[in-house]
Amino acid sequence: MMVKRSRAVGERRRGIVILPNAFTLGNLFFGFWAMIAALGADYSLAAWLVFVAGVADGLDGRIARFARISSPFGVELDSLVDLVSFGVAPAILLYKLLLEAGDWSWTLAFIYVAAVAVRLARFNIEQGGRAHLHFHGLPSPVAGVTLAAFYPFSQTSFFNDYLSGWPWTQLIGGGMIVVAGLMLSHVIYPAIPRLSVRNPSGRAAIAIILIAVALLIWHPQLVVFPVGLAYIAVGVARAVTVGLLDRLPDRDPLSEELGAEETDARDLEYEDMRPHWTGAADLEESAEDSSDEE
Fold it and tell me: Has residue 28 been placed in a domain?
């Protein structure tokens, strides 16, 4: 009886271990499918497949942490998959959509993919496999989903009425470089906290997810790209604000060192700065003292 029970527990445990990796491979499936769709000029399908890959990426990590089965294998597999889904797939989509006409414009896509690879490697060393409240640098799923979501956004009536005249080829090409730099930076970006009704952060996370789902149901084409840009901008604005507050003192550091009322230069007592020995005898005496200490 005990043998059957332990066997059932082991099979259940094995199923739980497989589940996060199944979501990770689902992420890879959608990312690879997105590349095939982009190469076939089905840009709308490719963009939404990158978005679905992002959903799968968010679920695999949460399932692993909830079940307490995070492993180095899962971390490495997740990074390899993310490089495909949020690095190569969006780069191919934007290359086929906007950059194919230029002779060397493909290098912008390469720079972006290289930044994703370095970002994921750094993440594995710094934060991989652990729950976190923030990210050091822009998360690659956000970068990939935001860039891919440009095409659905460009098909909306709002875009056609107000934004279609902008130089989007140059803007997206430059945006890829900016996003690549942010992924490699140490700009702090917030992560969605754990879902819980017991604490304010958990309740806020639930509210954010419910609002996001409602917006996606309302008009996904119009929502994903601007929300991604807003998330990117919030991190940059916060970093600039914190940097200015840290680097701009309230008053001159010299005045703090000398005192508020002390503004004149202080006289140096050169006599006090002279060495205590000047002759050869003093050198020999100092050497003898040091040899005695040894």
Answer: yes
What gap in Å lies between CA 56 and CA 64, rounded to an integer?
12
This prediction has a pTM of: 0.75
CA-CA-CA-CA dihedral for 31, 35, 41, 44, to nearest 10: 10
Domain region containing 221: 2-155+166-247
Q: pLDDT tens per residue, the chain (294 residues)?
A: 544 454 544 445 555 567 888 889 999 999 999 999 999 999 999 999 999 999 999 887 777 766 666 678 888 899 999 999 999 999 999 999 999 887 888 999 999 999 999 999 998 888 665 656 788 899 999 999 999 999 999 999 999 999 999 999 999 999 999 999 999 998 999 887 666 667 777 777 788 888 888 988 889 999 999 999 999 999 999 888 887 776 555 554 444 444 444 444 444 444 554 555 444 455 454 444 444 444
Question: Residue 8 belongs to a domain with what CATH number?
Answer: 1.20.120
